[in-house]
Write a structure and sequence with these properties.
about 220 residues, alpha/beta, 10 helices, globular
Length: about 220
Amino acid sequence: MNPAEPQTLLIVDDHPLFRKGVIQLIQATPEFRLVGEAPSGKEGMSLARSLLPDMILLDLNMKDMSGIEVLKTLKDEGLDARIIMLTVSDHADDLMAALQAGADGYLLKDMEPEDLMQQLVEAAHGKITISERLTQLLVASLREKSRPPGPAEAGLTDQENRILEHLIAGKSNKLIARDMDIAEGTVKVHVKHLLKKLNLRSRVEAAVWADRCRRQGKT
């Protein structure tokens, strides 16, 4: 996609007033073009398949099905969209479940409108988006698990280290494959292997962990 073109966006949320408020924000932001809205998980999946948006804003708790179910289904189908959870839940379990299911971000509904839109613009440019107060929850969770002190001790191959750098930048498998001139399936295999070596369950966890190691000089 041409970077100058707005990102197409679909919102899936069963609260009409909240949906309307977010839509107003999106329509006032030139980086995005709203292509659809859905009041339920099933309708959201149907629209996602037909519209193929660049980004999906997905509520966690909906009446017909959970956002995690929607997320898993769309990711399993290989939908090439950045899926950002937008929810009221600041529970660590919900955050970890979303990230492990493949969410590209996790934002809270009580964010200031300008902060929300800034995070979404950053997500559109390939950055990991997690509400600030939840990042500390994630870091604490990573600290509790047993894993190598840094990438150098993890026994990663050169290719896995290069892919880890791309994960820190928040890139999708498709973008990584393009940048490294390898097949997307090969990227998936490498990601699976490096997550196993790091004792992590999601690419976002890997990115946060590796970025923290870099800041601490454990490269």
